[in-house]
Amino acid sequence: MVAINTDYKNDILSIEAIEEQLSNIAKAGFTHIQWVHDWQGEYMYSPSELIQIKELIDKYGFKLKGIHATEGGTRARKVDGVFTFVNRYRNLENRKDYTCLNEYTRLAGVELLKNRVDLAVAIGAQEIVLHMQMPYVELRESKEFNDAYWSQTFKSLDELQEYCKDKGVKVAMENLICTPQEDQMKQFDKLFDRYDSDFMGFCFDSGHGSVVCHEDYLFFARRYKDRLIALHLQDTDGIEEELRDDDIQVLKHDKHKVPFTGAINWEDLAQLIADSPYELPITLEVGVYGDTEEEEMKNLVDAKEKGVRLNEMVLAYRQG
Fold first, then answer.
1. CATH number for the domain including 85?
2. ∠ CA 265-267-271 to the nearest 5 degrees?
3. Minimum mean pLDDT among 196-210, 216-230, 246-260: which range?
4. Whole-angstrom Cα distance, residue 266 to residue 233?
5. pLDDT digits over 266-279, tens only?
6. Structural domain of 179
7. For residue 216, what is the DSSP state?
8. Other Cβ atoms within 10 Å of 267 Cβ, number
9. Closest by alpha carbon to 205, among 243, 244, 179?
């Protein structure tokens, strides 16, 4: 048993493109998926689409390992003519953002998250994975902004908590790229101190860890092991020290390779997962491509086999 991201080769919105990937995932032998289409942006699923997606998933016999929700907007855009991440400062172009100081934009962001909870309920997922890309420079520089930002964020999450608990869906906060390790640690400590594990857990992205936590790629997995309920497992080659402050270079080094092809210590990570509350199977979040259909399918099968290997490692540690 292994799960993979539904957008393994693209995030094209057409149902035809989505079904093609679901069909290939099934042919490759995956038993579970994480719904990752529309993981960014402000797209709202209609009730009829929830039914359509459920029928597609049932058609291929998949079980769910969560969905990837969206925090609203997109994480990268042109600033003064330069394509860059919007992570150090607020993205004022968002129309839906659960952390926004504008109350209507905040409320729209909560509605977007509730829409993803509704999707989770419709397709049988037990958690939504959520980004919280902090404008960390402004948070550091202004206590007034810091207080207002967290007040709005807590207000949104308090509202979402009631909705999630009523629906039986948890939120898994993910470690990200392009935000310093120390700032993310303070963020997660604050969130997990306020919200119990019946509502909020942790999603560990191994690739993100490798390009942010340079002394220990698995730092966040170790620190929040007891909250681990979701995984985005991918491999990278790490990143050279001189490139670590360049957001675009960081993005390029977040390679989403299949496990056992890069710098991650999978033996150590398997032990951590085994000692956590995470429910198997493991979940890959990888890019799988091919110049031909045959090559693509061969690479998908290879990803599945490496996922099975990792799953078996976790099982072996759990069985002693």
1. 3.20.20.150
2. 120
3. 246-260
4. 10
5. 999 999 999 999 99
6. 3-318
7. -
8. 10
9. 179
